[in-house]
Amino acid sequence: MPRPGVPDPYRRRAREAGYVSRAVFKLKAMDARFHLVRRGQRVLDLGCSPGSWLQYLGERVGPQGLVLGVDVKPPAVSLKPPLDFLAGDVQSLDLAALREKAPSFDLVVSDLAPATSGIREVDESRSLALARAALAAARQLLRPGGHFLVKVFEGPDLPQLVAEVGQVFAEVHRAKPAGSRAASRELYLVGLKKKGAPPPPDQNPGQHG
Ligand SMILES: C[S@@+](CC[C@H](N)C(=O)[O-])C[C@H]1O[C@@H](n2cnc3c(N)ncnc32)[C@H](O)[C@@H]1O
């Protein structure tokens, strides 16, 4: 957490650039390293509020893309296309409502963070549950070949989560981007290239006949 009275350069830079949160610099750094987002893509942003990731992703996908945010709290940014929002808890996601917005996504990102209790084990286990909910969403909604980014906390269950991400993605990387406070145990897992064949083309002869 920021210490009272100690200036935070990332917060000041975010404000000057018009972003609603300093979290944007973490996503920017990971995008620069892993080339996660491209123009025209459909992106699902889990735990999107107040919305600096929405702002950045919207700039990157451009007017032909879609950035759909999900959060229990509404974002503090203007939701003009390509930005869209669905209110909800990621642990009970309305998949049908998400699929109505887009049948599949090219990228799923999660900056989900639980309300902290101050009790280390409780916070770790809540954070793990949110990361698993994000992975479940990526399993169901991300296209083969798509990428995944999820915030996690260093803890004894992390190797198991890394293995779970590795079952779904061809590559798994750990990232502690600039902008993530050194004292914080947060880090991000990046799953690149979701495994699995793309769906076959429509074989219905009536459609091509
Ligand atoms: C660190 S903030 C995300 C910051 C965001 N990436 C940005 O750039 O502004 C974490 C968010 O996770 C959301 N969150 C926590 N638990 C959630 C849940 N079960 N379902 C949906 N959102 C949740 C919180 O409401 C909060 O807005």
Which tags fit this structure?
209 residues, alpha/beta, Rossmann fold, seven-stranded mixed beta sheet, 7 helices, globular, disordered C terminus, binds S-adenosylmethionine
Question: What is the strand and helix layout of this fold?
Answer:
Blueprint: H1 9-17, H2 24-34, E1 42-46, H3 52-61, E2 66-71, E3 83-87, H4 95-101, E4 105-110, H5 120-141, E5 142-153, H6 158-168, E6 169-175, E7 186-194, H7 205-208
Parallel strand pairs: 1-2, 1-4, 2-3, 4-5
Antiparallel strand pairs: 5-7, 6-7
Helix pairs in contact: 5-6
The site of S-adenosylmethionine has 21 residues, from helix 3.
Uncertain spans: 204-209
Radius of gyration: 17 Å
What ions, cofactors and ligands are bound? S-adenosylmethionine
| Total strands | 7
Give the strand line-up of the largest sheet: 3-2-1-4-5-7-6
Distance between the termini: 63 Å
The CATH topology is given as: Rossmann fold
Beta-strand content estimate: 15-25%
Largest sheet: 7 strands, mixed
Brief characterization of the structure:
The protein has 209 residues and is of the alpha/beta class.
